[in-house]
Amino acid sequence: MAFMDTLKGWFGKAKEQGAELAEKAQPYVEKAKEQGSELAEKAQPYVEKTKDFAQDAVEKAGAKIEELRDKAASSDTAATAPSAVEDAREAAADAADTFAEKAADAADAAKETVDDAANAVENAAEAAKDKLEG
């Protein structure tokens, strides 16, 4: 029976220490959550900028399509069709390039925000570990 009592004592002590460590770590967990929320808020403008740019690109493309329709409807359609097609191709290529640049910028900004969040969580975890060990 003494062996069982010893095991119960060990497990009881481990349970108590685990509860104490969890209590001590709780402020750090809350701090990491807050920092993660703050960083997500900081990333939101980049997401909005990307959405705005995409909407602008769609609107510009729509305007160009209307312009091309008007050209196609004119009496000299055969003469203007090749230049209209070339204009459309150039406009689409320009829009795609611009969109790609804006998307890359937004992705870079989002990556930086995620990296900042990861660093904040890592720092909070290290601080909790140091506090618990010390």
Could you say which structural class the secondary elements and strand pairing correspond to? mainly alpha
Strand content: under 5%
As a percent range, the share of helical residues equals over 70%
CA-CA gap between termini: 36 Å
Poorly predicted regions are none
Q: Compute the gyration radius: what is it?
A: 30 Å
Detailed description of the structure:
It is built from two helices and no strands. The protein has helices at 2-73, 77-133. The model has no long low-confidence stretch (mean pLDDT 75). Helix 1 packs antiparallel against helix 2 (77-133). The two termini are 36 Å apart. The protein has 134 residues and is mainly alpha-helical. It has a domain at 45-134. The longest helix is centred in the first third of the chain and has 72 residues, at 2-73. The protein is rod-shaped.
